Structure formats: C-alpha cells, structure tokens
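Lab meeting notes turned into a lecture example. A postdoc, R.K., suggested we walk through two folding results consecutively so the class can see how the record format repeats. The first protein's sequence and structure tokens come next.
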Amino acid sequence: MKFVVVFSLVFFAIGSEPAVTRSYLEDLKSRVDWEVVDYEDSPFRGWTIDELKSLLSPSDVDPFDIPIKAADVEVKDIDWSKESDCIHSVRSQGNCAASWAFSVAGMISDQCCMKKGKDYGWLSSQELVSCDMTNNGCGGGYVKNAIEYVIRKGLVTEECFPYFGEKLHCPTRCANGREWEDSHLCKCKNLISCKGHEEMYRCINDGPISTTLRVYQDFYYYKGGIYEWDRRSSSLGVQSVRCYGRSSQPRPHWLCINSWGTNWGEQGYFKIATGECGIETIEPAYCVPQD
C-alpha cells in the first residue's frame, strides 16, 4: 500500500491528470502538522499539474532543500501588520506567472508608505509585467531584476496602470489620463540582499521584503498553520512572495503574503517554518525608497 501511495504522487506530478483528489488530501492530512484545505474548498480543485505549474516561475535550482540552521542569536518577534498601517492587502495574479511582480510591487508599496509617511496605495505590478524587459512577464521572473527596475524607474500607481493579468505593451500614458513618465513614484536607492536567516531577520526589521520559495504540490492545499514541505510532494517551480514578520511561537516561522487571492491559505496570508523551501536563500531582498 505504501508503494501505491508514493507511485500515485509521482504520477500526478508528471502527468496531466487532476492534481488533487479526495484521497490525496486525506492522505496529506494524515502526514502534516499544518491545516490542509478540504476538497470542496480547494481553489485548485480540478486543476492539473500543468495548470498549477503555469502559475509559477520555472526553476533550475536543486529540488532538494537543505535547511539553513537559524543563527544562534536572540531575536524578537516582529509583525508589521500589527505595527504599521502600511501593509497592503492580498492580490491575485490570476492565470499569469507574475508572482515576482506582485512580490516586488507589494514590497515597495509597503516600504514607500512606511518610509515616506504617505500611502500611494498599491503600486503597479502590471508595469513590471509589461515594462520590465529583463523579466518574462506572465512567463515568470526574478525579484532581483524587478527591484533593479524600481531603482531605475520607480512605479506608477494601479490607477495609472491597473492589473490585466497578461503582458500588454508598455504604455506612454496612464489609464487615468496622466503623463506616464511623471507618474512614477518611490524610486529606490539600492538593492539590499537578505540571504540567510540572520540577514533576512535583519532586513524584516526594516520593513517587508520580497523573497522566493520553492513550491511543491502540497503548498497549493495549505489552509493554515506553519507550513513545512511534506517531503513526498514533487517540486513544481518557484513562487515569489512578500514577507512582513517573524514569530518564535510555537516554533520559528516567517509571516508572508502570497498572490493567489484570498481564497487560498489564511485569506491569502501564510506562515512558513524558517529554513523551508529556500525562502531564506533563493531571492530574499528589498529596497528603500529615495528621500
């Protein structure tokens, strides 16, 4: 029986059959400590593995995680959603692998509000999808490249260039009629890398950051609690997210926001154990807006 379960997981991971069944979720619930979504409530019910992969950036990183040992230093819990009114709400990337754009646009929206004392609302993730030629629009991208775009240009607001979920031509005029070039805000000073547990903690003490994690099949069915990879689920690609805090209880974990809408996870939010899925090593970084 054990062989059959493992075989079926591998089968789903390489084929175009439905990625989730009732038996899959019941088996997953029996193995993990975090809360698994019920079959009827899964936002990805009926999706195939190929469709799940289409939401992610492709990845050529090592498919096996080597957890980074947390630094032996005293750390205090931090949660910017409680300390500041500048943490912007959950968004949905739709059927477009634009998590990298949402991660960075959300991070700079938060950082700009915190550092400048003025909330411009959500800055445009669509601008990154359409205008950042160093990334691949709805085909995936990198946090580092997107931050470097913000360093060069800044971003317009969503009122200027709302999200469409596809790679449109980069505009020359805002949707609200304003001049395109003059509408850019929150240009950054420089990219700050946050690789490793201690550095990521130091960065989050200055506000939300962008980072990227390796996504396994089980992550799609997260509903709550502190996520840890099931170790039987296959790697499908990578997803960039925004992290805004760290907590030590009941065990060390990061507080983060995904871009799969409010029907996934804890209304779009999630907790992930420190050292999991490359979240501290793949692309943790942020930038500080210019004065």
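The second example is placed directly after the first for contrast:
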Amino acid sequence: MSISVLILTLNEEKNISRCLASLAWSDDVVILDSFSEDGTKEIARQAKVRFVQRAFHGYADQRNFGLKDIQYRHPWVLMVDADEIVPPELVTELKVAVANAAPDVCLFQIRRKDFLMGRWIRRSSGYPTWFGRLMRVGRVWVEREINEEFHTDGRTARLNHHLHHYPFNKGFAAWIEKHNRYSTMEARQRLASAKPNIPWSQLFAQNPQLRRTATKALYYALPLRPLVAFVSLYILRGGILEGRPGFVFSVLRSCYEFMIDVKVIELSLRDKGLPL
C-alpha cells in the first residue's frame, strides 16, 4: 500500500530540495504553500509534485485544510515539514505500518532527531517528543495553533524510527524570527487560558499527548521558567555533553521561554490600556 505526502511551505528554497529527495518513494507528494516569494514554487515544478497555494491563517487551520480539502491518491498521508527528511529505514517502517494497520488505527506518532552543526542534539533538544505524522485520510484533525495537537476518532500507535529535523538550516536569523512569532502566539494563548489548570492525573498517563499537555501546564506554572529551561536542558538532560551545539540550543530555548514571559507581561498591560 502506498502513502501520500503533505508538506507545508513558506519560502523553503533552502530546505525543500533535500526534503523532496527523501520522498522519491512516494508517487503522490503535495506541497501546500503559503505564497512563497523565493524559489520554492520553481523547485516544486522541477520535482513534478503537486503544488497548491493558500493564504496562511494559522498552523492548525492550514493543516486541517490540507487534510480535508486536498484529494489524495492513497488512504494514508504522511505530514512532513520542509526542514525534515525521511530516512530509508523510516520509509520501510511506514510502508509496513500502513499495510498491517488494524482498521481502528488511524494515527501513527513519530519521533524526530534534531540536528545542529552536524550533530544530533539528543540531550539538549529534550528528546524524545512524539508527533502525529502518519494518518488515515478523513480520520484525523488538528487543534491548537502553536505546537499543534493531532486528534483522531480511532486509535493511535507509534513507530520506532525517526524523522531527521534540521531546524536551523535556514540560519539562526530565520529560527529567531520564527520563534519570535511563536512566542507571541504562545503568550496570547496563555493569557486567553488565564491561570493554567494542571491536570495532575495526566502527568503519568500512557498517552504521550496527554502526558505532554499535563507536563506543559506544570512547566508554565513554574517561577523563573527560562532559567529552569536552561538548567533542565543543559545540566539535567546533559546538553553540556554535546559541546557547542548543546550550549547554543539550550540558550536559544531558554531565550524563547523568556520571550513568551515578557510578551505575556506586555499583552497584559496593553489589555489594561497601560504603556509598556
């Protein structure tokens, strides 16, 4: 059984060629583009993949459009980011998984290996995190605009092999710009939800998505959270053993958490009509 592929793009000319090369095994690759202004469209044309353009209104909204409004050749679709590649061992596992999936299994979760400066930063990246990526068409939907959550009316299973993720391949400036946007979205979401309600019973749940949601709620309730993030990634998880990449990533992650916190303060003052 074959698998379709969906890739969301916006100005991904530095990443998309390598991503598409790792997807040569699929005869149905669709790029859902948010009107890129670089060479993304031309690269897609040369690769002879389907290219659909739609204005971007949010990550969950864009992914849901891709899942509901695009017609695929196959009953399973793999969602890949442009800065990811699908290694051969994962391809083999994907094909076996869909060929043998029970009728009620509709979503497979996959882990990623994050790379920086040519090294897998296993410790400082907070590995492992599970992402919903392989899904039955029509049985999965996406919620939460930032750090999206994938939901299904069926069962969820997990795969053993990894996607390879290169989040800094477009440069540190691009990573910082993207996380500047992310931090604003996170701050707005935190304000909208008022005080976090920590679901203590889910901290040790078997479902990794429930466990992640509960851990995130507890994490956001901690004082000095940016410092906690750095100590957790660099010291407790062992990022210090990963040399310069581990230090760089731990600092950037703690800065991201700091940006969220100060933007919560800013938005709170704006809502009250007060100056910053």
